Amino acid sequence: MDTVGLLIMIILWAVAAAQLTALLVRAWSPRHGTRSRLAGALVALDAAVLLAVVRALAPPPGAAITGWAVAAALFGIGVAGLVLRWRRLPWLAPRRADRPSRGRSGRVGGVVAAGVHLAVGAAVIMVLA
User: Fold this and answer.
1) pLDDT tens sequence for the chain (129 residues)
2) Domain of life, per the record (predicted)?
3) Burial group, residue 81, by CB count within 10 angstroms (0-12, 13-18, 19+)
4) Phi, psi of 77 (to 5 degrees)
5) Which of 82, 84, 58, 89 is closest to 71 using CA atoms?
6) How far is the C-alpha of 51 from the C-alpha of 67, rounded, in Å?
7) DSSP readout, 17-76?
8) Are 23 and 47 in contact (CB under 8 A)?
C-alpha cells in the first residue's frame, strides 16, 4: 500500500472512531446523552454510514480485521444504549429557553432535513454494502 492510501485509511478510521465515540456518548451518557429519538437515530445512522464507507474504501488487511470487529461491537453497544433510552425520549428535542422560537416552520424544516439525512445515509449504505 502506498503512502497516500495508508494516510486515507488512517483518516477514515479516525473519523469513524470519532463518530463511534459520539454514538457511545450520546447513547450512554446521562449528561451528554441524546435529547430526542430523531437525534439518536441520526447519530447511529452517521456511525453506520461511516463504518460502511471505511469497510468499502479502506478494508482492514489481514489480522487488522479485529479492529473492524471491535468497531462493529462498539456500534452494537451504542445502538443498545439508544434502544434502552428510546421510551424515555421525545421524538423531537424540546426547544431550549435561550433560543428564539422559529415556530412550526422551523420544526418542519428540521424534520425534512433529518429525513433527507436518513435517506442519503440509507442510500450510501445500500450502495456500499
Assistant:
1) 688 888 988 898 999 999 999 999 999 998 899 888 988 998 998 899 888 888 888 887 787 788 888 999 999 999 999 999 999 988 877 766 666 655 555 567 677 777 787 788 778 877 776
2) Bacteria
3) buried
4) -65, -40
5) 58
6) 11
7) HHHHHHHHHHHH-TTT--SSHHHHHHHHHHHHHHHHHHHHHSPPPGGGHHHHHHHHHHHH
8) yes
C-alpha cell at 38: 430523531
Residue linked to cell 439518536: 40
Q: Do 85 and 27 touch, CB atoms closer than 8 A?
A: yes
* Cell 456500499, residue located: 128
3-state secondary structure of 97: coil
pTM value is 0.78
> Residue 67 has which C-alpha cell?
479492529
Directed axis angle between helix 3-28 and helix 65-85, to 10°?
20
Residue boundaries of the structural domains of the chain: 3-94+102-128
Q: Phi and psi of 59, rounded to 5°? A: -65, 140
Decide if 124 contacts 53 (C-beta within 8 A): yes
